[in-house]
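Workshop exercise sheet. Pairs work together: one partner reads the sequence aloud, the other fills in the structure field after running the prediction. Swap roles for the next sheet.
Pair: D.N. / O.F.
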Amino acid sequence: MKTMNRILNSKWLVSGVSLTLGTGIGAGLVGFKKANESPSIREPLSDIYNRIPIIPIPNVDAATDLSKYHTGQVGTARATEIMKYGFPALTHIKNRESYVLSYDPRNRTAHWVIEQLNIPNLTGESDRKCSEFKEDDSVHVYHRATNWDYKGSGFDRGHLAAAANHKWNQKAMDETFYLSNTAPQNPHLNQKAWNGLEKYCRSLTRHYQNVFLCTGPLYLPREPILLCCRTEADGKMYVKYQVIGKNNVAVPTHFFKVVILEKRSGEVELRSYVMPNAPVDENTPLERFLVPVESIERASGLLFVPNIMKRTSSLRAITAGGK
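Structure field:
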């Protein structure tokens, strides 16, 4: 416990990181800023998380034991390895060949998607040209997105678990094209800065034994600017986002990616990113998008640190300015 407290209270946990890069991030920052002004956030993270109940690993197909996964193995053992650090939340869990997903039927996209990356997963003969975006028939027809929802919307079908992360098996890659694993994403972001973040995460497999990624949408509040001959804000906070298609697929205001990095020594590093769902200069250093993980936990309603701390007493959370 002393080791955990020393690490959680160390210089690696830098709070108050600005997200003010671009209009989209600036709009979303208001919610983060006000959350960070709360007196409770000034407490040591170890004290905060000691009071939060741990989300248990449920007795479902996606997690039954913690047996080691071997290349080529199929079935629940792979899902249990992916979910080594627990479930951020427990709703509408779907276990795929190479990722685990929590589906949000109201917004017609995922709450979160978790995948495990290592060098064997990233190599293989799978070809995304053989894959097609498709409805997820495991989701009730009332609650699923369709390709027609995206047609003419101006948004890409942005992968949450990226297709290129699962070259080891064609079926695994095909399953990343379920629309339950996508969200409406600004084309420039999808093809530039977000793609750069995905590539960077894959490159981390050269330096870490395992890379766990949790990716999902955010719907952040902002202070509106009233038009119709008025430009002043009314001083109130609003959560406002677009929907597309006849199924009203929600368009996130931002996307998050929480990266859990396992070293061979057993140490664990944590990096968490937020990007606005808007054009972002791809030359912007990725470090500019690093945020404290508690900001994502507050904004998303998910929890990551309590589950991670069940697995290790050596956690280093890296934010802007960290190495």
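Discussion prompt: The two ends are 24 Å apart (CA to CA). What would you look at next?
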